[in-house]
Amino acid sequence: MLSRRRLSIPFVIRSWSSSFPPVSSHIHEDLKPINGQAIGAPSTSDVSGKTNSLQGLLLKRATNETFKVQPNPYNKHIDPKTPASRFSAPIQAQEYVKVLMELTLQSRLDPDFNKIIFTANVLTPTELSTLVQGLLISSRLVEKLIHVAPGTRGTEVIFNLYLIYIQTVGDRRLTPLQLNDLNRFVTFFIETSQLRKAQTVLDFILASYDNQIPSDVTTTIHYLQLRCGALPENWPAQPKAGMMHNYSSRSKYKAFDRKFVPALIGLLNSPTGEWSLRINDSLEAAIVYSLGFMGQLPVLEKYINQRWGISLNSPREPKIVETLSTPSSEILVSILTSFGRNGRIVPALELMDLFIEKYPELNLDTPFWERLFHLCTSMWDAKIDPMGQLSNGSWEVMKEWHYKRGTKVRADYTVLKDRLTVLRATNNYRGAADVITQCFSQLHQEDLQSTEMMAIVQKYFKLVLKNQAASGCYHQSLRLIKNASPSQELAKSFREYFNLHRQKYVQRTQKRSEAAQQKSKAFDEDEEEDMLLGRLW
Questions:
Q1: Is 225 helix (H, G, I), strand (E, B) or coil?
Q2: Which of 137, 275, 370, 506 has its CA 20 to 30 A from that of 4?
Q3: Cα separation of 370 and 238, whole Å?
């Protein structure tokens, strides 16, 4: 079980004016004077009436300062069978950050506060769960906490809430509600890149189940992410094509359990087991990511064959046809990423072709295409693929998929940026012209409000127009500008750009012509001189 050490949060609350009474299990006789000062002898900063830190608030509360209790304006509470708690009103008003700050303050004031939250009617169990859920699903929570408590880290405040929470749980087996709350903590810490804190919460969950993983999909996904490598955003940088990762390197993110995934796959494939009914797309993707991170591609290929009947080298293993469900875009992204990590993006593209062919109703969303082109660009090596065929092939796959569904290729900035990287490096202006034709005519004025999108549009047109001007094209360039320019202003600037480079082309052509004429004239003069000398001899 985890140590019950308290978290030190220096200067958590600055100028925090509390409106709730302190809750204590005993009189605060054990508060230590600050800087050797006796309690009751205010410092210079306290005389000014300002409280600039958590320590200051503690000192003021220790001097028995009076606090007012806000009446409950709702005259109701969450659970009608339970008396209203001290924090029922702000919980009902969804003032979750305010309640969090009060809990943090009082837990620092009283070491035993966490143990009496329920017995002293500070919060009911349902209200505590409501607080956790309301906070952790809130958008931009860390920024809100930093705004309320300047100079502190929002993740530390949430971790302190976690420590308060587990004190209310004790050593008992978690209820489904408590398990859900703790998984919220894990998700929050993963999303804020606090993996050690996420591991700490996961340890507590496992300890509550005698170090066994509960039959819960969310907990299982978190285990795969934290113990088996299913967090691709934390993977080390990908190598160039033809190179493999050194799995023994000292990476901060490692797979600690290499036996769990095969065992889990065995449970999923058991038609009589409970896991076969619980699996979802997120769990499937986490399994794929784990196998890809650990480099277990043979196991991954077998898993793909078993789950979706897709194989590169061998016939499909016997499987009940009705059990084969169309994979989601999330799953296909995980397959692409896992193969790409191991330097096998070409087989991954072949698998995508097989998926598209086998599942016509397959829905490939924007994140899928973004991930595909990101992988193609990050793994592209000009020495191995000087023409950029990997990116070109991916573009053709995307065009074909949209064509079969009667839709147009969406002008997504991330895809356009990665595609342009290869096109410019290979000077493939014809490929850039195809992108312009497919995408840019759909853009509207509001799309061009983004400076990034405006810049990427200009780069595509300039790559094409510069090369076409250098090739002597005229009508083709003007037709492209007329048909594909997103706005009249851009069309005007593109014509000016094209005319500038066309003039350079004309001047360059004239210089070459004049140089050729000069060379021809000099040659004729030499020939004539040789003939005269021959006659003299």
A1: helix
A2: 137
A3: 16
